Automatic annotation (TrEMBL):
The lineage of its organism: Bacteria, Pseudomonadati, Pseudomonadota, Alphaproteobacteria, Rhodobacterales. It comes from Seohaeicola saemankumensis. This is Heat-inducible transcription repressor HrcA. Negative regulator of class I heat shock genes (grpE-dnaK-dnaJ and groELS operons). Prevents heat-shock induction of these operons. Pfam families: HrcA. Signal peptide: none annotated. Belongs to the HrcA family.
Length: 354
């Protein structure tokens, strides 16, 4: 049993209702909720003084806070987490929202990047937040690998897949690379790749390098290791992340301080070296996950929430994720089914291409 669930179970009906109505009022308006407002909506007739006492108790528990000198209360991050885990009522997907998302697919579903870009734009438009779509790595078997020197600190690795797909990835090679060490590194990889996907190849390379450390030149060894790091997601791969809806978050910002936090969030997204951590966040279980504020280190300074869900290929393997970023006062009950539906839709579309 979670801590939040335990606290909810120990509350009486009045405390639970006051807490729920404060959170729901805040999520709807973004404003503090006062005791006089609650006297008009409570299921039982109680005085404003009684409600204020309950609010003080909830504040003592760390579930509500008092912004500035306002008499009203807003939920704390801890309170929002407890509400999401124990009291959130998730609505069914709105038919209009579903139609808007479906309409973005178009007829050319063979262009995965284009499809994901349209999905991301639609998700941002429907939710009025910022959308994130983590594109899948290409998982077809690799046919050929080549390294191309572009200068003393830049190199290109060219991956040719068995299905004809070609990817070019820039990276910083170890110092001192020579044409011969690049050829040796490519020959070493091409001797291992037959029938292997990127994931398979990473495992095989590590095993082979350990067993044949003396046989491969140290420069080529370092080049191969750099390539493995890149493929594993340790390199900068911004093309795999589609972000839409910056203007939505900026227009929803309530003041200069919040504007600065939103700008910081997008700067962090653009600079992030291992943006694939979104996939790690979603990978701990199927279905939608909600991260509030500092629960996700990427958004801890911006005070934002992330609603994210993985999507899977035909083999039920998680290959990407879709999500929505917004202020902590997101309409979670509406956003959750939208993200869930979009993730399932993307997974089906990608699986149907196989």
């Amino acid at each position: 049993m979670t801590e939040g669930k335990s606290i909810l179970d120990e509350m009486n009906d009045r405390s639970r209702e006051v807490f729920r109505r404060v959170v729901e009022g805040y999520l709807e308006s973004g404003d503090p909720v006062g005791s006089r407002t609650l006297t008009r909506t409570m299921s039982e007739k109680v005085s404003a003084a009684t409600i204020r006492n309950v609010m003080q108790d909830l504040e003592y528990l760390g579930l509500l806070g008092s912004p500035h000198v306002s008499a009203g209360r807003i939920p704390t991050q801890r309170g929002l987490r407890m509400f999401v885990d124990g009291l959130l009522e998730v609505s069914d997907l709105n038919e209009q929202d579903r139609i808007k998302i479906d309409e973005t697919l178009g007829s050319n579903t063979s262009d995965v990047t284009g499809m994901l870009d349209r999905i991301s734009t639609a998700l941002s438009g429907v939710t009025r937040g910022a959308s994130l779509v983590l594109a899948p790595k290409h998982e077809a078997p690799i046919k050929h690998v080549e390294f191309v020197n572009l200068g003393h600190d830049r190199a290109l690795v060219v991956l040719v897949f068995a299905d004809g797909h070609v990817e070019n990835r820039l990276f910083t090679p170890p110092a001192g690379q020579t044409p011969s060490s690049m050829r040796e590194a490519a020959n070493f990889l091409n001797a291992l790749i037959e029938g292997k996907t990127l994931s398979d190849l990473q495992t095989a390379i590590r095993r082979e390098i350990h067993a044949r450390r003396q046989e491969i030149d140290s420069l080529a060894h370092a080049l191969v290791e750099s390539g493995i790091a890149l493929w594993a997601g340790d390199g900068d791969a911004p093309e795999r992340l589609i972000v839409r809806g910056r203007s939505n978050l900026l227009s929803a910002a309530g003041g200069d301080e919040e504007l600065d936090r939103i700008r910081h969030l997008f700067d962090d997204l653009e600079r992030k070296k291992d943006i694939a951590e979104f996939l790690d966040l979603a990978q701990e279980g199927e279905g939608v996950r909600i991260f509030i504020g500092s629960e996700n280190k990427l958004f801890s300074l911006s005070g934002s929430s992330l609603v994210v869900s993985p999507y899977m290929n035909a083999d039920r393997k998680i290959i990407g994720a879709v999500g929505v970023i917004g202020p902590t006062r997101l309409n979670y009950g509406r956003i959750v089914p939208i993200v869930d539906y979009t993730a399932q839709l993307v997974g089906r579309m990608i699986s149907d291409r196989k």
